[in-house]
Automatic annotation (TrEMBL):
Keywords: Lipoprotein, Membrane, Palmitate, Signal, Transmembrane, Transmembrane beta strand. Its main location: membrane. Residues 1-27 form the signal peptide. It is a lipid-anchor. It is found in: Cell outer membrane. Could be involved in resistance to puromycin, acriflavine and tetraphenylarsonium chloride. It comes from Rahnella ecdela. This is Efflux transporter outer membrane subunit.
Amino acid sequence: MRCINSVNQVKPLTLLCCMLLAACAPMKDESAPVKAISQQEIVLPKDINMTAQQWPDSNWWRNYNDPQLNELIDRALQKSSSIALAHSRVARARSDVALIASGTQLKVNAMAEINEAHVSSNGYLGPFAEDRPALGTTGPWYTEGIVGLGATLDIDLWGEHRDRLDAVMGVENAHKLEEKAVQLEISADVAQLYYGIQTNYLVTQHLEQLQQSETFVFSSHQARASRGLESIADAEIAKAMLLTIEQQLSMAKQQRVAFRESLRALIGGGELAEIKPMPLPVAQTQLPSSLNYQLLARRPDLQAAHWYVQSSMKQIDAAEVAFYPTFNIKAFFGFDALHMNDLFDHSSQQANIIPGLYLPIFSGGQLEANLDKTRHQRDMLISQYNQAVLTAVKDVVTTGSALQSLQEEQVIQNEKVSSAAAGMNNAQARFKRGLISQAMANEAQHEWLNEQIKQIEMQGRLVSQDIVLNKALGGGKI
């Protein structure tokens, strides 16, 4: 049996469709949305003068020329649980894209159904409740069978499914960039911890030299005090200084263990090979001559925030289209019979083609609330994006300024080390000529070692700020 509408039925249906279109649910106008920050607002202050015409390389840490660091970062990027979590988010977003993309595809289902029914004598099928075989009725019980194929096709008249697809694709792109941001975060953290350990090695070496020097000074004061040549107070002062150095050594060793265990956690656990002492690199990263759109393009976190904004705008488009009519086509071909033994007869064939037009007129405020929600969501994401951009610029400027100040302080500290070295050499020469005691010569060496420790710590801070600046600039083009 084929279902076909007559011409007389089509005209009223066309008229009804026109009336429904005219009765479309009203859409509330939007107030002024939040505006995204402009590129002109991303500027460097004039007092920052450490600029160059280049950005960091993609694998910026390789510029430090340290194979140990390269191996640690490569391992962390492969085995970190944070990377695995970010990758899972990307995979889930990809599944969402596939799910939305299937919305407008043709769907075909096979169906088979048996319906054991008792027909009411007082219903519109009342005549079938009687057992009159001559008329084809064998009621009141019938065993109806249906078997066939059903198909549904949704027609995306206004692009609602396309907008929803663009929205989830935007989220997928955002998750991909968040994965890049996690990689940047981890590589920077590994580099920070690694050079924290290297700085600790150098400081410990100098503290051990100080300990030897101060041990001799303490022994000298103690010997002189025992012979009555000086007050015991001098020996006690020397002992207090020696204990301070031993305390610093103990703290340095504890700090090294903390750095090492944090590094082990970052690279995914497991056995960590011994880290050999290496000299600290020279901080060479400089700020680009201008930031503007390049910072937005190179920072993966800013790019992710941008894609979230784009996705929210597509969600608004889809929410607006939901006020418009939807159209789909349903079809069925198979067999339908009131008696199972007649199910596969040629006369039991049935075909249906059902175009459908649906228009929301009264939704109880659901469509309006959904549209309002998506608009507020967009405004919130734009505000978050603006704040992220301002924070990124602040990070770049403050880190660059700190690096610039440290470089200026390093020049002064280098001069102090040179002066202390000259004083130590003079004291050693005077000691060899018998003009001063060895204790006095050791005190000059003590001063030189202290200045060297300050120099090492400052160099460690310079490297740390150099890593932070590379991170703030987005770690190079990704």
